[in-house]
Structures are given as C-alpha cells and as structure tokens.
Amino acid sequence: MAKTAFSGYAYVSLENLDNREFAVRDPRGFLARYAKRTIIDEAQRAPDLLSYIQTAVDEDSSPGRYILTGSQQFNLLAGVSQSLAGRAAYLRLLPFSLSELSGSKPLDPFALSGPDRRPAPKKLDLDMILFQGLYPRIHDRKLDARDFLSSYLSAYVERDVREIMQVGDLLMFKRFVQLAAGRSGQILNFSGLAADCGITHPTARKWLSVLEASSIVSLLQPYHRNFNKRIIKSPKLYFLDTGLMCHLLGLRKHDELQGHPLYGSIFETFIVSELHKAFAHLGERPPLYYWRDRTGHEVDLLVEQGRRLTAIEIKSGKTLSSDYFRALNRFSTLKGVHADLILVFAGEDSARREGVRIRTWWQAS
C-alpha cells in the first residue's frame, strides 16, 4: 500500500538480512544511499537508525523524506516517539470500513443526523460481514476467515504482547483475550475480568492496554456532562473487528450467528467500530461516548461534535419495535439535553419516527 500511495519513493525492507546488516553496521552509509524520499519497511528492525534519521531530518527538514512502516508497531512507535518526537506524523491502519470493502462513498461522521443518500451496497450479507470481519487480506485473497484470524492472533497479537509485555503464559493471555471478546459492548469490570481469568487486577489492566494500543480493542468512555444523574465512570469495551471477536467466541460458520446469545453485542460492536473508523480515517480522534445512569437507563452511543450531540441507539433486530425508541425518548427529556436522535437497526427501511431518524446498518457504516 505504501508503494502505491508513494509511487515516486525508493523502497527498502529491513526484513532483508543484507539491508538490515547495512543499516545496523553503517547507518550513515545506509542513509547516504537512501538520502532522497524512501519507504523504509520493518523499520523497527534497526532501532538505532531512527536516531540517525533524526539528525538527517534536522539538517534537511523537507517534509515527507521518509515513510517508516513496520508490522511490530510497539517497537516501531517506541523508537519513533523517542527519536523523532515532533518530527513525524502518525497513520494507524485499521481494518477496512464497510464503504472501503463495497467501494461506496465513505460515511460522513459529521453528518450523521442528516439524510443518507448513498445507494445500498450490493451483494453484502450482514451476518457474513460480522463473521468474517474486515481485515483486508481475508477479502483481497478470498481467504478462509477462521484460518486467517487464527494465524493473525498468533503472529501479531500473541507475538507482540509476549515480546513487549514479557507474557510468559500465552495460554493464559489467550484466555484473557477470549474473555474480553465475550465482554465486547459491555461496561468493563476489571476486577471481574481478572478474577475470571485467574490473574491480578493490575495485570488485566496492563494486558488490556496493550490490546488497545494495538487497535484490537477500543474503550468507550462515559459521557461526563452532568444531567442531574450520577454517571457510571467505567468504560465500555469494544473490539474493532467483529471477525476477530467471532473467532475468539468460537463461532465456526456465519449461520451460527442467528440465535447466538451475543448477537446483539456483535452487531453493536460492528456499528461502534465503523463509526470509530469513520472518524479515524479523517484523522480525527473518535469523539464517541456512552451514557448510563445509576438506575440503568442507557444510550449506546453519544457522538460529541463541538456543541452538537448525537445520541445513537443500536438494535440488532430487523423489525422496528416501539421499544427501540424508549431509551432515546427518555434521554431527550433530560434537563439540558439537546441532541439529534438516531436509531440504527439491522433492517432495511429508513425513515423518521417520533423525532428519531432511523438508519439501516449500512447507513451507519
């Protein structure tokens, strides 16, 4: 992808042992050979090279001299943060969005409350999307999702966590990730998660922070504005890819989704992750929150954009029910609340009812 996006750049990979030895043994000579615009792939393989790049960049501050990529992002980010602070821009690659997969116009997250005039994507089955997830190689190479995700979990998640956090018991860590998958869409209870896994509370926090840093999960914070109710302060946990979530839950086929006890959580995870990507792909930090008071009244998602607030309720049913509007209508009556109201569901009809804009699942993706 970097080669395509920066077609005029030279390319060198430090996965190649000869290139790596050159960069490690003679970093000045290496940079002299690649003095002009260059993509340096697997840059974390030669961490000291980044200090020499800092010197080169300080001498010639022309923007975009180097594109640094790497599959072990913890090591790469640690080196870049230390040596190139203030000199580098960061781009974190997430799984495909639904619009990228279908080739349709991207969702505009700043116009959620307006009408969506994008045509319905063709030949997309919701349950298959939820089961396969949106990691690019699954769709690009037509791979079996279970085989790919099993390899991905071993090669990236387990490897990176073992190397960076020095996790000795990988079976325990795998159990931790599986238990986390079962809690996607729920308010996070660190003590309960740690107890179920048989680890300490600090270990659970440390392991989850690694999953968050590697874009496996995202933590949705509670909305802090006081609506005359005491707000619960624990975050909600969401996986950023439902395919990985389904794999960890042990689903073997997409038709096992219907009737699954966590189907609602999987669907909610999908919608939240799509909105997360919509903001992230614009270079924005996703302004996503949830709201819940001490009596259990809850709105799944709040989107804050300046003074604008959009409240979103997510339902996995395909048939509209009056119960779907209850939480939004209750939220809209709270003192000081001025919010656009949106209901996202798994059906196909878009409309407006009771002051709530109804959007189908693909209109929120």
Structural notes for this entry:
- Helices cover 40% and strands 16% of the residues.
- Helix 2 crosses helix 3 and helix 11 crosses helix 12.
- 33% of the residues are buried.
- With 365 residues, it is α/β, with parallel strands linked by helices.
- It has a nine-stranded mixed beta sheet with strand order 4-6-5-7-8-9-10-12-11, sandwiched between helices. Strands 1-2-3 form a three-stranded parallel beta sheet, with no helix packed on it.
- The protein has 15 helices and twelve strands.
- The protein has two domains: 82 residues, no CATH class; 189 residues, no CATH class.
- The longest helix has 21 residues.
Please tally the helical runs, counting DSSP H or I stretches of 4 or more residues. Answer: 15
Total beta strand runs: 12
Overall morphology: globular
Structural class from helices and strands? alpha/beta
Distance between the termini: 23 Å
Mean pLDDT: 89
Q: List the uncertain runs.
A: none
Radius of gyration from CA coordinates: 22 Å
Order of helices and strands: HEHHEHEHHHHHHEHHEEHHEEEHEEE
Fraction of residues in β-strands: 15-25%
How would you write the strand order of the largest sheet? Answer: 4-6-5-7-8-9-10-12-11
Number of domains: 2
* Quaternary structure type: single chain
